[in-house]
């Protein structure tokens, strides 16, 4: 059976790196994996999404509306934007974090004040504060690894050697803090 994971965020949050590490780990575990990513003006704080599908045989990297097993959102408004991709019985993991988009910064739009409430009413939603967890580790840039940890735990992928994946794919000086962040994320779900 094919599983579908949708990772969404804003450019600069490390969404693409998290999805590439996830894909690498799944392939090393023997799954057929397809990944698709969209970088909409991502270098300027625009929306970023990665679709990761894995199983015995995966035909397409595309997650259809209403078919994601899990939506992991690095930013609250992005969770709202992609909510219609989640299955009825799917899960949403949302980082309680706000990044104002250009329309909001320019005064042409307002940030949705009730984002978490809407998510919790419409889907099985787990809210985490990855920024606070990253702060405890002394490095704000590890929020993406905390969120990757939530995926690993929520999807039952703990048997994969994630420490090896991080050691093989990150700069040596960043490995230890990222392993701690991954474990912190796994403990939040």
TrEMBL record:
Classification via InterPro entries: IorB_Oxidoreductase (IPR052198), Pyrv/ketoisovalerate_OxRed_cat (IPR019752), Pyrv_flavodox_OxRed_cen (IPR002869)
GO terms, molecular function: oxidoreductase activity, acting on the aldehyde or oxo group of donors
Domain of life: Bacteria
Pfam families noted in UniProt: POR (PF01558)
Record bears the keyword Oxidoreductase: yes
Domain Pyruvate/ketoisovalerate oxidoreductase catalytic: 11-186
Keywords noted in UniProt: Oxidoreductase
Name of the protein this chain belongs to: Indolepyruvate oxidoreductase subunit beta
């Amino acid at each position: 059976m094919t599983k579908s994971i949708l990772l969404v965020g804003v450019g600069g949050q490390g969404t693409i790196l998290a999805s590439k590490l996830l894909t690498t780990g799944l392939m090393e575990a023997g799954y057929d994996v397809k990944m698709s990513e969209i970088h909409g003006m991502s270098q300027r704080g625009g929306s970023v999404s990665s679709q990761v599908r894995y199983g015995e045989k995966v035909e397409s990297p595309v997650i259809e509306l209403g078919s994601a097993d899990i939506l992991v959102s690095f930013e609250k408004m992005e969770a709202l934007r992609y909510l219609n991709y989640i299955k009825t019985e799917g899960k949403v993991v949302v980082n309680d974090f706000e990044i104002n988009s250009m329309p909001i910064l320019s005064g042409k739009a307002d940030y949705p004040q009730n984002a978490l409430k809407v998510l919790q009413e419409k889907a099985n939603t787990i809210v985490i504060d990855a920024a606070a967890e990253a702060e405890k580790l002394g490095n704000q840039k590890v929020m993406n690894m905390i969120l990757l940890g939530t995926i690993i735990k929520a999807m039952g992928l703990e048997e994969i050697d994630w420490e090896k994946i991080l050691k093989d794919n990150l700069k040596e000086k960043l490995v230890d803090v990222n392993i701690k962040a991954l474990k912190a994320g796994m403990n939040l779900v």
